[in-house]
Amino acid sequence: MDTTFNxxxxxxxxxxxxxxxxxxIILSLGMLLGIAFLFFGIAVIxxxxxxxxxxSVFFFLVILVFQGYVTxxxxxxxxxxxxxxSFFLIPASKLEKFLAKISYxxxxxxxxxxxxxxxxxxxxxxxxxxxxxxxxLGNDAFSDGITYDTDSIIAKFLIWFLxxxxxxxxxxxxxxxxxxxxxxxxxxxxxxxxxxxPVFYFFVSGHMPSMSMPFLMTMESLNNGKEVYxxxxxENYPYCIYGLKLFIGLYLMLVSWVKFNEKTI
Amino acid sequence: MVTxxxxxFTYSRRKRLFDKLSLNLSHGHIxxxxxxxxxxxxxxxxxxxxxxxxxKGTIEVFGSVPEKREVPFLQDLFLIPEEFSVPDVTxxxxxxxxxxxxxRFDENQYDLYLREFEIVxxxxxxxxxMGQRKKAFIAFALACNTRVLLMDEPTxxxxxxxxxxxxxxxxxxxxxxxxxxxxTHQVRDLENLIDxxxxxxxxxxxxxxxxxxxxxKVRFISYNDSDKPGDILYDEPGVVGGKAIVPNENEPxxxxxxxxxxxxxxxxxxxxxPVFTIKN
Lengths: 265, 280
Prior knowledge:
The complex is a heterodimer. By secondary structure, chain A is mainly alpha-helical. Chain A is built from seven helices and three strands. Chain A has helices at residues 7-46, 52-74, 81-88, 94-134, 150-173, 178-205, 238-262, and strands at 209-213, 217-221, 227-230. In chain B, helix 4 packs antiparallel against helix 5 (130-143). The radius of gyration of chain B is 20 Å and the shape is globular. Chain B has two domains: 2-201, Rossmann fold; 211-276, no CATH class. By secondary structure, chain B is of the alpha/beta class. Chain B is 26% helix and 27% strand. At the A-B interface, helix 1 and helix 3 of A face helix 2, strand 5 and helix 3 of B.
């Protein structure tokens, strides 16, 4: 008998995870569809086209929230002592349990979300074509500007991966109200990065920017007194950013695995 | 089967719970783990099942170290905690989800125990009353046929007929290859059920005797004030007369009164008789 990894036990854990959380999973997917329905419904009622960049960011943020939510569902056992106890006493190895848990929040759901985002964007483009004719909008200027290339897919996937690993860590480290606590931790990290990135930019470029968003852009004062946006890393070194996100995500996973191994009730 | 050596455990630095606690449990027995509130009965069961880790000392359960939570160990140990969580599924579905993890799970036994406990297998476990849910969970635990079965306050939340059913079912479970530990502070619920009494007090095991050994050494009697015996080891006076423990000097064994025994062992006067010495 393989005590470290057994495909039968792993498969059983995966199906159990689905069976136990079936209603919540269906509910969250239903809510995602509802939000899309509402979004396009408002557009139809208002007889306006969909701004694709707005739609892309809007649905991206919706998915971010849902990523945190479904990670919470996957690790809901750890928010109570009886739940933690029941989970650890299932006769399966630690590796099987950990992989079964993270399969949903790090692989299955991000893939579903990616598909969802792709479909709503395709629907937005299709809606704009229809709306341009139906509402006599006169042009199809809203149809361009959005591409669904490999880079944008990787970028989205990595951000959801980061959110999922952060909530994974939160579920294992915080005993109660782990969603709220993780959100606060995430917000604190975001603010800290916002504060640190100008300093980082200063060391890289020699110029002190006057404003920054973490790893997105900084506003740099030029010698002539004008301010311009200087895209710090995302424009010039996208793969550096991908690597950084992947590294942080994998690091959080490793920390979660260590904590998972020594977690008690 | 279960060996605990020099176990130290604490939840906080100020308050130690176990101090060099040692205990041996073997198969073929139903142990009653007794102790006052806060003495660590539940904690000891949690340590045995590997969901808590010892600070010092060792625990071995049929050769496995519980804190490693290895698959063969988990397949052979079942803990029924005082509070447990069950998913929103029926008892039948619950068995579908988890029975395959236990190699010796017996579906016929499970159905039998559910019938004995009068559980409707089509109702969702999460919507059952606490007592019903507990009975369904106990039925599943028994049907898993694990070599070690730990029960933490199993009769809490059960009504009087259910307690009777519980005793009947546990008494019918074959124990030759099994070690069953029942932790409780409701000592009367365990009468006629356990064969060994283990008492936890002052951070360690202070009493570990089989019912037969106890009955051979002492007798539990009721007396009137007029015929109060002179060789009383422990006495609980009532309004008229009282109850007492006296030495058994080759007389037929009396029924062991668990409550008096427990009170005698945990009373401040612990040196009443050599019968209450530590035995690991």
